[in-house]
Amino acid sequence: MKAALTRVLDHLAAIGIEVHIVPGATGFIPGCRIEAGALLVDPECAPSAVLHDAGHVALVPSRFRSYMSDNLGDGMKRMFDELHEMDLPPDHPLQRAAIQCSDPEATAWAWAAGMAVGLAPEEIILDAEYGGTGAEIRSMLQANQYVGINGLAHAGMCKRGHWVAPEARYPNMHCWLQAA
C-alpha cells in the first residue's frame, strides 16, 4: 500500500470512519466500496477515490450513516423518507445536514481531508476524475470558490469568508463527521 493511501486511511480511522482493507473491493468508484456506512478499500485504490467516498460517508448525519451502501441512492431515499415522516421544520439541524450531503460537498470534504493529511493537490483530485474536469475543480477549490464549500459551511462543518481568521477558514474543518 502506498504512503499516501496509508495517510488517508489513518486520518479516516482517527476521525471515526470505519475502513476495511479488502483486496478487489470495488463499487461506484473502482477500488472503493461503501457498505453500511463503512469503506471497503482495495490496497491499490487511488487516495482520491477513497477521499471522495469517505466524504459521502462523513456528510450523512450519523443516525443514517449505516443506510449508505454502493452508489448511495437507496440509502439517501431511506434517509429522506424518514426525515419526511419526522415532519421537522426546514431549518432543523437534521434537515440542514441531510440537504448538504451531495456530491459537491463530498468533493469539498475530500479536498479538505486531502489537504489535512498533506497530499499534493494532484493526488486529492486527479485530472481524469469528474468527467475529465479534475484540474478545473482543483482550481476552484484552491481559490475557495467551489460550490460544495458553501454546503459544508451551511452544514456547520467549516467556516468561510474574509471575516474568518485564516487558521479557522476552509479547508480547515470545524468537524469531520456530520453528527446531526
The succession of helices and strands, N to C, reads HEEEHHHHHHHH
Strand content: 5-15%
Main sheet characteristics: 3 strands, mixed
What gross morphology would you assign? Answer: globular
Cα-atom radius of gyration: 16 Å
How many helices in DSSP terms?
Answer: 9
Number of domains: 1
Provide the residue-averaged pLDDT.
94
Please give the number of β-strands: 3
The end-to-end span amounts to 34 Å
Going across the biggest sheet, name each strand in turn.
1-3-2
Residue windows where pLDDT falls under 50 for at least 5 positions: none
Class per helix and strand makeup: mainly alpha
Q: Estimate the helix proportion, in percent.
A: 40-55%
